[in-house]
C-alpha cells in the first residue's frame, strides 16, 4: 500500500512538473517578445542593462534556492546527530553549515543588488513603455521568479519521494 501511495504521489508530482515546465516555456516566449520590444525602443546600453538583469535574475534566484535547499539538508542531518555520531562527522556537518550559511548570506546580498538593478531597469523602461507594457514586464519578472521557485520545489519533492520509494523497495525482500 505504501509503495502504491508513493508511486501515486510521484505520478502527481511528475504531472505537476510538466505543467510548470509548460508554463515556463510560455513565460520564456513572453520574455522573447518583451526582449524584442525593449530592443526596439531602448538605447543599446539600456537594452544591455535589461538583458543583464534578466539573465542574472534566473542565476541569482536559482543560486539562492540551491543554497537554501543544501542548507536545509545539512540542518536535517545535524538534527539527527546523536551520541553514536563520530566527532569527524559532527565537525564536517558544522563546517558545511557555516560555509553554506555564509554562501547563502552572500547570495542574499546578490539578490538585494539584483532588486536594486530591477528598479533601475523599471525606471528605464518606464520612459519608453506604456503603463500596460510596463505591467506586462513586471508580471513577466514575477512569474519567471515564481516558476523558478515552483520548479525547484517540485524537483526537491520528487527527489525525496523517489528516495523514499527506492529505500522502501530495497527493504522489502
TrEMBL record:
Q: Which Gene3D superfamilies match?
A: 6.10.250.3120
InterPro entries, alphabetically?
ASD2_dom, Shroom_fam
Q: Where are the annotated coiled coils located?
A: 90-120, 144-171
Keyword annotations from UniProtKB, A to Z: Coiled coil, Cytoplasm, Cytoskeleton
Cellular component terms per the entry's GO annotation: adherens junction; apical junction complex; apical plasma membrane; cortical actin cytoskeleton
Q: One GO MF term, please?
A: actin filament binding
Q: Where is the ASD2 domain?
A: 1-173
A Pfam family found in this protein is ASD2
Its localization reads:
Cytoplasm, Cytoskeleton
The GO annotation for biological process reads: actin filament organization
Recorded hits in PANTHER family, A to Z, give: APICAL PROTEIN/SHROOM-RELATED (PTHR15012), PROTEIN SHROOM1 (PTHR15012:SF37)
> Hey, which family's this protein in?
Belongs to the shroom family.
| Protein name per the record | SHRM1 protein
Amino acid at each position: 500500500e505504501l509503495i502504491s501511495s508513493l508511486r501515486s504521489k510521484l505520478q502527481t508530482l511528475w504531472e505537476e512538473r510538466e505543467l510548470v515546465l509548460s508554463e515556463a516555456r510560455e513565460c520564456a516566449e513572453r520574455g522573447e517578445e518583451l526582449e524584442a520590444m525593449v530592443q526596439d525602443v531602448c538605447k543599446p546600453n539600456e537594452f544591455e542593462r535589461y538583458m543583464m538583469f534578466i539573465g542574472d535574475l534566473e542565476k541569482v534566484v536559482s543560486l539562492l534556492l540551491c543554497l537554501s535547499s543544501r542548507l536545509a539538508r545539512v540542518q536535517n542531518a545535524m538534527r539527527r546527530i546523536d551520541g553514536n555520531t563520530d566527532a569527524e562527522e559532527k565537525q564536517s556537518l558544522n563546517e558545511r553549515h557555516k560555509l553554506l550559511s555564509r554562501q547563502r548570506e552572500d547570495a542574499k546580498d546578490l539578490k538585494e543588488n539584483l532588486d536594486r538593478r530591477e528598479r533601475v531597469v523599471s525606471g528605464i523602461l518606464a520612459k519608453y513603455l506604456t503603463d500596460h507594457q510596463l505591467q506586462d514586464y513586471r508580471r513577466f519578472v514575477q512569474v519567471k521568479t515564481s516558476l523558478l521557485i515552483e520548479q525547484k520545489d517540485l524537483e526537491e519533492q520528487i527527489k525525496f519521494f523517489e528516495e523514499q520509494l527506492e529505500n522502501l523497495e530495497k527493504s522489502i525482500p
